[in-house]
Amino acid sequence: MSRSPLLTTSQRRALGPGVEYEYERLTISREFSRSSVTRMLVDRAEHGGWELDRLRLSPDGTRRVVLRRKIIRQRSTYYV
C-alpha cells in the first residue's frame, strides 16, 4: 500500500473577537529528509505568510505539521 508523500488540508478558526486564523495541516512522509522539510516550510513561510504552529514526529517517521496564518479582514470605508 503506497501513501502519498505529502497530504494537506486547510480550515479556518476564530480564536477571539477580531482575531481569525487559517490553519493548514500537512502530513509529510518519512521519505523526505530533514533539510528538505525545512526548506519546504521556510518557503511556505516566506511566500505564503504561514507560520509554524505545531509539529509532531510519529514513531513511524511521518511528520504532522500544522501551519497557521492570520486572516486580515478589511472594513468597508464606504458610508451612506
Q: What's the short version?
A:
By secondary structure, the chain is an alpha+beta fold. It has 1 helix and 4 strands; from the N terminus they run ββαββ.
Please identify the top-level CATH class.
Alpha Beta
**Span between termini:** 61 Å
Dominant shape: elongated
Helix share of residues?
A: 10-25%
Largest sheet composition: 4 strands, antiparallel
Q: What is the fold's blueprint, element by element?
A:
Blueprint: E1 6-16, E2 19-28, H1 34-48, E3 51-57, E4 63-70
Antiparallel strand pairs: 1-2, 2-4, 3-4
Textual characterization of the structure:
19% of the residues lie in helices and 45% in strands. The model has no long low-confidence stretch (mean pLDDT 84). It is elongated and about 60 Å long. A four-stranded antiparallel β-sheet has the order 1-2-4-3, covered by helices on one side. It starts with 5 loop residues before the first strand and ends in a 10-residue tail after the last strand. By secondary structure, it is an alpha+beta fold.
